[in-house]
Structures are given as structure tokens and as C-alpha cells.
Amino acid sequence: MRLLKILAVVGVAGCDGAIITPSPGDPSTQMPVDPSNPSNPSNPTNPTNPFLPVDPNNTTNPTNPTNPTNPTNPTPPVDQCAGVTVAAAPSTLRRLNAEQQLNSYRDLLNDQTLAPTLAPLAGPIITEQEVETLNAAAHALVLKKGHESYLKCSITGALNSTCADQFIADFGHAVFRRPLTVDEKAGFKADVYDAVRTNTAITPVATFKECIDATAEAILQAPQFLYLHEEGVVDPTLPAGIRRLTGNERATRLAYLLWNSTPDATLLAAAENGSLDTAAGVRAQADRLLKDPKAHKAIRGVVAEWLQLDGNSHQASLEAAPKDATKFPFDNAVLRAAMREEVLALYEKVFFETGSFKSLMTSRKAYVNRSLGQLYGVTTGLPANDATSAWVDLKDTERSGLFTRAAFLALYTPQDQQSPIRRGVFLYREVLGQALAPPPPNVDNTPLKPGATALAIRDQVDTRTASAGCQACHAHINPLGYALGNYDAMGRYVTTESGTLNGQAYSVPVDSTVTLKDVDVAGVVRGGVELSDKLAASVPAHDTMAKVWFTHANQRTAVKTDACSLQRLDERFRQTDDMRDLVLSLTTDDNALFIQETP
Q1: Which of 198, 221, 305, 398 is deepest in the core (most CB within 10 A)?
Q2: pLDDT by residue (tens digit) across 439-467?
Q3: 124: helix, strand or coil
Q4: Together in a domain, 153 and 273
Q5: Distance between CA atoms of 179 and 319, rounded to whole angstroms?
């Protein structure tokens, strides 16, 4: 409590700019474009977006020169890299999210048990409430004493100005991911350390420990920690308008891509001894980081983000997705947690063992506890209870790859029955990378009721989406969802759908045979296993996986100047099918090494 009073007396207010205030022209004061804004030209739902994918099935469309699956197309693909020397985009101001903050705090203070209360990322600009949360979090962290390891003298000793200077330089270097400027060091010394030391309103007089603790709190919530701001440096060997990212900026990008955390001392040393000035040096460090256990956790975060397991503005998280307790009495929090763990573990296993995207789409391996294994119909090799999990083999006639797993199937479905539309929309947009216009405002979203008529869900969806206006999208969406018709709202494999009509029970067979029309998955597909085989071989699916990683690495949607980078990534990933190689390629992509100047 005494430290809080000291900070209140001297007026330290970490993250709101009390220590370092950006100048009016500083790019760090500019709010990034919100990609969800309908007026944003990079929004994939904006019909005026010039970067929307061209319909690859329209072979007569003169604007479609890039269909790789149309052998009769006389127009060769456009080379997006023609005339491009360095394919870099302008840098955007990025704010650490709560997970990145927590990971960074734990690594900086060498304590993986730290659990300060952190506000979820509400937007690019910190709110007053978040300021208070950050103040409290920084105070809680300092009480754990992890910052004391950066001190070169005894924290219980007498006031020591020289030691304080060294602490500010060393601790600030680690927290800010770069050496502090002269002005920054002077600012923290005068505005915090000296302000606490000399303030006559503090009684008794502040100790050396209290001065250091107050300084550590201010550093831990400073804008230089909370935001990733890049300026780059002029390099006369580069084209006009292109700047080279500094070693520290490259190190920061690398660490948050592969660890979702701050650079370690080895990476910062490489940044400052010139090792990251070359692509080869960056790749060497990337190889090292990817072998660290921290990379496994970061990789899991990407698949959770891609599958939207934590929900979004349109749907609940996997854990909160509502289900009919009467129809699914076995549903509980332990089972939901096992569903999440299974898909994360599958992606992690495939990524680090073979890296193969095709394997991700077709693997029959599953990491299950007893309840999830029983849901899958597994009878051998199951754990004795739900407290542990084990790898088992799933039936090859029922399951194949990521999109036949309960986490995806249960998340993209209503309370009591499978949803071909929601499942199909995800596959069409987030796996095959095809654009969809938003549904009309008068769309009928009333949940289908199996008991309304003795019809299968597929027949009911066909009836509801039969109009020409609906078919513009649903001719593509529905078949993808129908192919997953053998999986109910909890992801169980079924061959019939049951309901009641006029008080009488009925059962109708599931028909999961479809004819797909899109890109290179076109053709007859019989159920989820064959659909997974199609996705595994799909060029657009590979390209979309590359774009998922590109977006994650750059923390923004792709813009026009990214066309060359995406083309290079796509071409390589189509050849290698290796997600590890894809991620390592991103570490030496032009966007990871250079930035384009902004006016």
C-alpha cells in the first residue's frame, strides 16, 4: 500500500503517457484502421473491396486470370512480383493483447506463475479503465520482486544513484525490447526515481527499494512496452521509400510471431551485434525459437484464432456454445475442454512432426480423454477417466482431419442439431478462402425444427435457400455443410436424424453425398472423410492457410502491396506442404525485414 501512495503523490501514471508523450506527428499516436469497419477497403465483406477473390468458377470472366485449376484458361496467372524489388507494406502501430502482455511479463520477470489481472484488448487505444487495470497489474508484479534480478546492487541498501541508472538501463532494455534513449533514461530517473526520493510529502523518506519499485512499475506499463512501434532506418541499398527494420524491431517481430512473447536475451544480443541484419541471421534465430517449448504454445494460439474457438461478435466460444441439455445430457465443461485440447494438440502434433497441411486435413489421430473418446466411438486405448488424455486412432470410415472433430462440429452448430450452413460458411470462407457477401437484412434465421415436418435437415435447408437470390451463395455453402451431415450438434457420428411429428417419433437417413462446385474441390464427395481428402489436396486451401499465417505474423489484413509476398508464400507452400517451412519463410519475408515509408 505504501508504494501505491508514493506513486499517487508523485503523479506517476505509466501507460497514459506521463513518462513519454509522443509528439503530435509521431506515427504512434495514429489509430490503426479497424479491419472490421465496413468502410475499410480491406474488409473482406465489403463488396467494393478491390482485393476480393475473383470467382474462380467463372471461366468466362475476363478479370479472372489466376484460376490455377482451369486448363482451358488462355490467360496465364498474373505475376504479382514483376518489377517488385522489395515487397513491403507500411508499418502499423500494434498493441500487445492480454496474452502477449502476460507472456511477456512472465518471461521478463522469470516467473511462469504470474497471473496479474489484465483487461482484454478492447481496441488500439487504452481506455481509462484499462489504465487503472494496468496500474494495479504493474503493482502486483513488482510485489513479486522479479524485477530485482536486474539490479546490480542490494535493493535493501542505501540510496545509490549509479545503481539506479544501471537498473533503468538494464530493466528498460529488456522491457522495451531495445536500448533506452538518453531522454528515456533521464525521464525515468528524474520523473520517477528522483521524484520519489526527494518528495517531502512522502513520510518517512522513501527507501532505495521504494524508489526502484516505483521506477519498475512505471517501466512495466509504459507505452514503449505496450505498443509495437516501428520506424526502421534508411538503407541506401534499398529502393526509394523502403526502410530496413532495425535489429531490435526484427527481433520483436520474430519473438511475437514464434513465441507470442518478448525477445529473450540471446535474441536481443543477436539484434544488437548485427546478426539479424541478414535474412540468414534472422532464419538462424527463427530456427532456434521454433525449437523452444514456448513455440508450441504460440502455435496453438494460431489454430485457436483460425477456428475462432474463443468466439466472436457473431457466436459464443466453444465452451459457451449453448446445447440442449435434454438431448445431450453427457455435455459438460470437462468434455468441452477436451474438445478444445484435442484440436490444439492435433495441430501442434502435425506442425512439429511433419508440418504437413495434408496430414492436418486427413489425420485419424486424436488426443482424447475418456468422455471424448467415447463420443468418437473409440473402444480401445482410452484413458481410465477424464483426468488424463491419450492419443488414439479414430475409425477411418468416420473421421479424417481437423474438420471432422468435435470442437469444430459442435462450435458451428445450434443448440440441438447440426448446421450445414454455419459449417459450410466457415469452410467456404476460412478454409477455401472464398469471399461471401453479407446475408440480406431480411434473411430468415429462425432455427430449423426437426419436428416441423418429417424431413431431414438437408431437405429443410434446401427448401429455405431455394430462391435464386439465396442460391448465389448457398449453392457453394450448402454442399460443404451437407458433406458433414453425419455429425450431430456435439460431433457424434450418426447415420440417421430423429424427430417427432404429431407426437410420433420418426427417423430419416442422413444423405452426406454432394456435388461440390468450387475451385479444385469440385466433384462428387461422399461424407466428411472424402471432403477432408479434397481439402487436403486443394490449392486454395493451402493458399488460405498461408494467408492465415501471414495475417497472424503481420497482425493486420493483407493490402494491395502484399500481393507479391502472398504469391511467394503460396507458391512455396503449394510445393512443400510444410507449415513449419511456411512459418519460417514468413520470418524472412520482406514484410518481416522492411517497411514502406508513410507520408
Answers
A1: 221
A2: 877 777 776 765 556 678 898 899 889 99
A3: coil
A4: no
A5: 42
